[in-house]
Amino acid sequence: MSMNRREFMQLLTTAAAGGMALHGEFARAADAADRMYELPRFGNVSLLHFTDCHAQLMPIHFREPDVNLGIGDMFGRPPHLVGENLLRHFGIAPGTAQAHAFTCLDFAQAARTYGKVGGFAHLSTLVKRMRASRPGALLLDGGDTWQGSGLALWSKGQDMIDACKLMGVDVMTGHWEFTYGAERVRQVVDGDFKGKIDFVAQNVRTTDFGDQVFPPFVIKPINGIPVAIIGQAFPYTPIANPRYFTPEWSFGINDETLQEHADAARAQGAQVVVVLSHNGMDVDLKMASRLRGVDAILGGHTHDGMPAPTIVKNGSGQTLVTNAGSNGKFLGVLDFDVKNGKVSDFRYHLLPVFSNLIPADADMSALIAKMRAPHEAKLGERLAVTEGVLYRRGNFNGTFDQLILDGLMKMKDAEIAFSPGFRWGTSLLPGDPITMENLLDQTAITYPYTTLTQMSGELIKTILEDVCDNLFNPDPYYQQGGDMVRVGGLQYRCDPAGKMGGRISAMTLNGKPLEAAKTYRVAGWAPVSEEARNAGGEPIWDLMARYLRDVKVVKPLELNLPQLQGVAGNPGMA
Amino acid sequence: MNTQRRQALKSGGALGLFGVLVAAGLVTAEEARAAGWDKPAFDAKTMDDALKALGAGKPGESSDIMLNAPDIAENGAVVPVGVKSSLPGTEFIAILIEKNPSMLAASFTLPDGTPGDISTRVKMGQTSSVYALVKADGKYFMVSKEIKVTLGGCGG
């Protein structure tokens, strides 16, 4: 179904009549939507891009980070800008809907004013609208689509697979998809997706002979112009996630082979070459500087909602690097004007998906309702109420992670707790109930085991140093794209610009220095080792549900944060 | 995927990989026996000792040597490392790992006319610089790259 502007406006008027008229600027919903979503067509080749939706089928709140430090060459450069620094850099007026979409400023207040974001029914309507004004446009999914909710976990991603097919995704690559195991991915790619969605990944090969597991790229005509889309899966999947899920597949950045595929695509007649990437933005920026003949890298993984592309100069001219945020909150629209066999100009917009401004697509709503129906009771269980904002995103900690750390230490009777620096997970406002669905939004993974380990002070330091280097190594190719492991109980000092092994110091527990040779009781979850899987361990959502039912009311939480060194004036701190 | 090759190797599995290679005529039985074991070089505990045992002295640098290896190892127990030398007269290639208990991980003596292109898997206990040493036309050259071995987890 395509939708012309008039039909869209009619739907909006209906939405406005349905109770939208309460909130200041948003009172005139139709006008606001018209301003935000009326994009004149440009050029002759359009690509629509969403990424890292983390299985969020329903509208949600998502707080952007207040700490996203850029170290070394990345200092002060997108995506390492937060809050007012981001607004200034991109020329966005404070106190607007756009400012709310791209920053954490006045989060709770702005979230109430502008309402929830995302939701596949709303995203679908926006996709249809963009397709109506941009004939032939392709819809690209950057991955991290099948994981991040209870429903997705229980159906092994089937809810998302069906929703993506209905929305009309054309090409996809992956990361968390692989945590359902190689067999499941194969089953979907060779079954559900066959003839409908191309799953591309140039950097996934077999560990034995280095054979390509998926097609490296696909060439599709848009208005008669051949367009190549090269897939780049998350290069460090078997390191950041358990290797036992894909023991026979090897990943890696492999930009030399990516170059070979770009050259091959050109040789086969492609006039536009783009990479659909799950590298993370810093890696994409470095990669763009090394590649030739790639018009754009449409990126994800690091969940950076960047209003404008970074233009990287390189051997062949330039490559655009975009990053389209997370949780279904944004739709990227890239328009190319292709003349005489090559890209001559472009326009890019990262559209926030304001659920109150975009009517829900009826077919998608029906599908989602049908898939949720058998699970509504379980998902809807109210475990507790929160008095403060709960969120996860940020380099060092978030309130939802603090809650998990507190729960782990209490329920495991541990002195110290670790919680992984995941960047997914939705946000809750003061007064919101914490439902089982909200808890699963933070925890729904295929290796949810909680652990209690006797660790020496020395090992604790090693772990913190290791993860810190994965975040702040000055060479992006050595980064993994998550955030710092969240730490409960233990205080420490962190110098992000320090050398590997020298960033963490002044570690104390209850005011006493941590002793290298002494052992401590450390709780955690999401272990990547096979031994931890075999040992079992209560799933994190069960442990946290017990904790929350007991606590009932979650008071505003004080974050346990490291004392940071050498970051004064960094525009990656709000 | 090359399923034929995969099948052939599976059915030949009983012979062991080396047996298959011999059977396939890729490596002659004579070559296999002739391969010597450079004990002093493999026992060397420092970079200088290893280079000395190999007779390499102070190798020069070269942009004609490519060291292909991951930036971060997926599994420290089997890290794929490849060396490609386009230097004319490449006769010997070695891989050295600075932080391993014994630095020399592998050495390859290439008969005349063999392309300077080798690859193997090495074991690494921790993050380290990895060196490719090439002897070409009687002279030694070396390039290096850091390979990170991490604890894993906590990603994206």
Walkthrough of the structure:
The complex is a heterodimer of chains A (574) and B (156). Chain A has 574 residues and is an alpha/beta fold. Chain A has 2 domains: 277 residues, Metallo-dependent phosphatases (Purple Acid Phosphatase, chain A, domain 2), CATH 3.60.21; 185 residues, Alpha-Beta Complex (5'-nucleotidase,  domain 2). Helix content of chain A is 31%, strand content 21%. In chain A, the strands form 6 sheets. In chain A, strands 4-3-2-1-13-14 form a 6-stranded mixed sheet. A 6-stranded mixed sheet of chain A has the order 6-7-9-10-12-11, covered by helices on one side. Chain A is globular. About 1% of the residues of chain A have low confidence. Chain B has 156 residues and is α+β, with helices and mostly antiparallel strands. Chain B has 2 domains: 35 residues, no CATH class; 112 residues, SoxY domain (Immunoglobulin-like, Sandwich). Helices cover 22% and strands 32% of the residues of chain B. A 4-stranded antiparallel sheet of chain B has the order 4-3-6-7. About 10% of the residues of chain B have low confidence. Classes of the chains: A alpha/beta (574), B alpha+beta (156).
Outline the secondary-structure elements.
The complex is a heterodimer of chains A (574) and B (156).
Chain A: H1 5-17, H2 29-37, E1 45-50, H3 83-90, H4 97-102, H5 107-114, H6 120-133, E2 138-141, H7 150-154, H8 158-167, E3 171-172, H9 182-190, E4 198-199, E5 205-206, E6 217-222, E7 225-232, H10 237-240, E8 249-250, H11 255-267, E9 272-277, H12 281-290, E10 296-299, E11 310-314, E12 317-323, E13 330-339, E14 342-352, H13 362-372, H14 376-379, E15 382-386, H15 399-412, E16 416-419, E17 433-435, H16 436-443, E18 450-456, H17 457-472, E19 486-488, E20 490-494, E21 504-509, E22 512-513, E23 519-525, H18 530-535, H19 540-551, E24 553-554, E25 563-564
Parallel strand pairs in A: 1-2, 2-3, 3-4, 7-9, 9-10, 10-12, 15-24, 16-23, 20-25
Antiparallel strand pairs in A: 1-13, 5-8, 6-7, 11-12, 13-14, 15-17, 16-19, 18-23, 20-21, 21-22
Helix pairs in contact in A: 1-2, 8-13, 15-19, 16-19
Chain B: H1 3-11, H2 16-23, H3 29-34, H4 39-43, H5 47-53, E1 65-68, E2 79-85, E3 90-97, E4 104-109, E5 116-122, E6 128-136, E7 139-147
Antiparallel strand pairs in B: 1-2, 2-5, 3-4, 3-6, 6-7
